[in-house]
Amino acid sequence: MMTRAALFALILTTTFGSVSTGAAEQSKTAAPLAVGDMFPRLEAEFLTGRKAVLPDAAAGKSALVMMGFTYDSRFEVEKWAEHLRREFAANDAFTFYEVPVIGGMGRLAKWFIDSGMRKGTPKELHENVITVYGGVDRWKKAMGFVKADENAAYLALLGPDGRVRWLHRGAFTDEAMAALKASIASEQAAPERQ
After folding, report:
1. Residue 90 exposed, middle or buried by CB count within 10 Å (0-12, 13-18, 19+)
2. CA distance linking residue 38 with residue 16, whole number of Å
3. pLDDT tens string 33-82
């Protein structure tokens, strides 16, 4: 039986590394996303085990996609999620997704990783977590990954049509939340774009 410490060490050493995804995979996203771009198709699974496809899963709503590329990035993503749950609990036209992107040998530890995340995430939020195994280079490029900010949260606000409306990299701040809220309010006040 594997101890918790051994499992943690295995996950750390095998999951959050980047592996080359090949030319075909990398060419799907040639440049970092910009406001106005359609969010690239993301296919994975929610923590419930149900298939998740973005931006389709959020169609008709504003949705904040929060990606993390390292184990430590979860702290910034979780901080954002905590504030979003409080701020937008009554807003049915908004949702969010925590999206850990795991590369390297992480696929081999998928069962352990998903099981640990299910235990650490309230059941009512299981459909707000989408774990992506593979395609790390593609998503790093799309989200404008910077090595100096490897532990940052990478955020993209999608409009109801799946187009990017706002981008941010970094920790939760009151200023960033104000900018996000302004973008959401602007989007929800403009039904003619939908």
Report:
1. exposed
2. 26
3. 999 999 999 999 998 989 999 999 999 999 999 999 999 999 999 999 99
